[in-house]
Structure formats: C-alpha cells, structure tokens
Specification:
mainly alpha; 79% helix; 7 helices
Length: 113
C-alpha cells in the first residue's frame, strides 16, 4: 500500500522521457529492492530539503519512517485543500491570506508533532 502511494514520488525523480516511456513497466524491469531504495532516497531528500536537517534529526529514529509516510499523506491533504480553496469563490484578499497560511504551515504543521 505504501509503495503504491509513494510511486509518484519516485516517478517525479526519473528523467521525464524515461518516466513517460517506461514507468508503467518499472515493476517488471527494475528489482524491487532498487525501487524501495529509490523511494526511500526520494522521501528522505524531500524531508531534508523541505523541512531541514534539524527537523529530521529531532525525530526519534524508530519513528522516522512513520513520520515520513505521514508527512507525504499530509502533504497531499494540504495540496487538496489548496486546490479546493483555489476553486472557491471568495474575496481574493482573504483567499490569498488563507493560501499563504496553508503554504507556510504545510504538511509539517498538519503532522501535529
């Protein structure tokens, strides 16, 4: 289940031509362990670049994988909320303020840790 949810993250890090031409066959041609390692690397990079090493180092090592998976889940939730808000009819000033708060808080705030 987690692997399927994280495959788009892996796809985003592939060269675009490779992703377009062969991503649907990745499971047939690439060893499972390589895919797992690539997903873990992509996820770790995302956390470090978006939240910084201090955030990553502040997590308990035995919980870091769980936090990383929850982070991706919350990131998707924030993106969905942003999409809904963008399609909502409301005064632009208020909409922009709410979008700025969503962007500033992001997935990290939604983690509640």
């Amino acid at each position: 289940k987690d692997r399927e949810a994280l495959l788009p993250l892996f796809r985003a890090h592939l060269p675009s031509t490779l992703a377009e031409v062969a991503f649907d066959r990745i499971g047939e041609r690439v060893p499972e362990q390589y895919i797992k390692n690539a997903i873990a690397s992509c996820l770790a990079s995302k956390l470090v670049y978006k939240e910084g090493t201090r955030f990553v180092n502040s997590q308990r090592k035995d919980c870091l994988a769980k936090v990383a998976l929850k982070y991706i889940e919350k990131e998707k939730e924030v993106a969905a909320l942003t999409d809904v808000l963008n399609s909502t009819s409301m005064p632009e000033k208020e909409k922009a303020a709410i979008l700025a708060l969503l962007e500033a808080g992001g997935a990290r705030t939604a983690l509640n840790i």
